Amino acid sequence: MVNRLLSLALCALIFVSGCAGQSAALPAQPAPGQSEQPAIQPGSAVSLTEDAFVPPFRYGRSLMEGEAAVLYDRLWDFVSSPVADNAIPVGAGLREDEILHTITIFRRENPLYYWAEFTLRGRYVLVGHTLPWAEIERQRTAIEARASEILDPVIGLTPFEITLTIHDALAVIPYSSNESDENRDNLYGTLVRRSAICGGYAAAFLYLTELAGLESVFIAGNSERGISHAWNAVRLDGSWHFVDVTWNRPLGRFDSVYHSYFLIDTQTLLAQRYWDEHQFPVMPEPGDGFMDFFQRMGWSVSGELPFDAVDVLADIFYRQLVDRDVFPDSARPVYLEMRVSDSPEIYALWKDLFIRNLFEILRAVHARALDEDAGFIVSDLRNVSIDYNDHTQVLVFYPVIRAY
Asked: Which 8-state DSSP code applies to residue 352?
């Protein structure tokens, strides 16, 4: 039988660019699941050396069994302990599509190897690289330096606070519409060149949360409009939460990070997305410890409208301003957000009240700031911008604020 040569470019499928390259020695890494990296502790340094980075979890690998699991582990064994022979044998029972699927999952779950190339030749997978080794080392050093900048401030923080810090750091990275940018879906493009698409945001979120000792998942699928998309799941307090950095990035004239798609549940997620069921037959499911971001921050309401509902909303927005302590010297809109954590019917009531009483809420925030000498005022009581997301039931308020 003539051996067939199948090059795994898979760019659109796995959000990683690939092209022909020669094989080379790869850096050493510990095996997946070998031991868990402890959470970052106060007084410790965030070490990004190869010996310190122990991937705590691989969701896709955990769903595999038999020869697919063996192939996944052999791929890891090679990239962690390269040998002269880069030909990895494939089990006789694996079909071609199962081999490609295993390689796809491996690449999605191991974003640090974005430069690796896998070529299927007969019953072997050949491992090579798409960049010169010196360039790989240079890019990796730059990636680790940027990761340190993001993770150094999280030492001593809770897993929730670490996840929020990573999310906010990634969401401000500009979205790239340049289709010729070969790095916009990998760690180097996202973290170092600061240019990304959904696959780049999701890869960087996975990489950074794992460095911080958290369990995280890269999930691929499509948006409700049928466009290829990628997002993440992260485990907090024993429960899975979904995070979509791409859809939380700043939009329009207000340079503010959204949190509408930060720590959302399965129902909210799947209202606007379809996951790749071939990648994961089963999605990570939230458990009893599910944590609503807005409830955790104290920026949510629920239940029927109380008699003082306007004051309730004004209190949430005022406390958010005080907590954030980001009062501009010159008057400009400040982004504030809150969520109705209840049924769509209850949400509709709160949303209607919010829209009808905008200026009453604005005046209440201003009056309280003056009464409590908060260090800021609402400088324009006649103009205010708003937004809302009916899928996530988030209401957004942009009062014009300045410090005094």
From this structure: H
Same domain, yes or no: 114 and 73: yes
199 CB-side CA count, 13 A: 27
Cα 326 from Cα 329, distance rounded (Å): 9
H-only helix segments in 239-330:
266-270, 293-297, 309-324
Q: Residue 12's pLDDT band (boundaries 50, 70, 90)?
A: very low
pLDDT of residue 56: 54
The beta strand positions in 124-270, using DSSP E, are 124-129, 216-223, 228-236, 239-243, 262-264
Number of domains in the chain: 3
Question: Distance between CA 206 and CA 177 in Å, rounded?
Answer: 22
Comparing CA positions, the residue from 134, 103, 130 lying closest to residue 114 is: 130
Q: Strand 394-398's sheet: what is its strand order?
A: 300-301, 336-340, 394-398, 385-389
Place of tokens 């919010």: 354
Rounded distance, CA 384 to CA 389, Å?
A: 17
Name the more confident of 76 and 196: 196
Confidence band of 289 (pLDDT split at 50, 70, 90): low
Q: What is the pLDDT of residues 154-163, one digit of tens each?
A: 999 999 999 9
The C-alpha atoms of residue 313 and residue 304 are separated, in whole angstroms, by 13
H or E element that contains 171: helix 159-171
Residue-range definition of the domain harbouring residue 347: 295-403
Q: Do 219 and 197 share a structural domain?
A: yes
Give residue 252's pLDDT: 64
- HSE, CB side, 13 Å, CA atoms: give it for residue 275: 20
Within-domain flag for 308: yes
Q: Do residues 379 and 303 share a domain?
A: yes
Q: What is the pLDDT of residues 112-135, one digit of tens each?
A: 999 988 999 989 999 888 898 899
What is the pLDDT confidence band of residue 364, given thresholds at 50, 70 and 90?
Answer: very high
The answer to whether residues 106 and 168 belong to one domain is no
